[in-house]
Amino acid sequence: MAEENKLEKQKRRRLSAEEKVKILSEILLKGRGLSELADEYKIHPNKILEWRKVLFESATGIFEQKRPDITEKA
């Protein structure tokens, strides 16, 4: 019963997009460990993996966008 009360009192922490990018960049660019960062930020490692999946799925759109033709004169 005491554990149920403890869980009820805990509020979910919402990380901003900037915080998520910071965490992902620490893994992808700085080579920090997934478990290490999950412990540091008190989030489940699967959540970080989920963010990484979303990042790479949405990143393809960047490369699919057409650039304006720079040879055309306005």
TrEMBL record:
<dbReference type="InterPro" id="IPR010921">
    <property type="entry name" value="Trp_repressor/repl_initiator"/>
</dbReference>
<dbReference type="InterPro" id="IPR002514">
    <property type="entry name" value="Transposase_8"/>
</dbReference>
<dbReference type="GO" id="GO:0006313">
    <property type="term" value="P:DNA transposition"/>
</dbReference>
<dbReference type="GO" id="GO:0043565">
    <property type="term" value="F:sequence-specific DNA binding"/>
</dbReference>
<dbReference type="InterPro" id="IPR036388">
    <property type="entry name" value="WH-like_DNA-bd_sf"/>
</dbReference>
<dbReference type="Pfam" id="PF01527">
    <property type="entry name" value="HTH_Tnp_1"/>
</dbReference>
<protein>
    <submittedName>
        <fullName>Transposase</fullName>
    </submittedName>
</protein>
<dbReference type="GO" id="GO:0004803">
    <property type="term" value="F:transposase activity"/>
</dbReference>
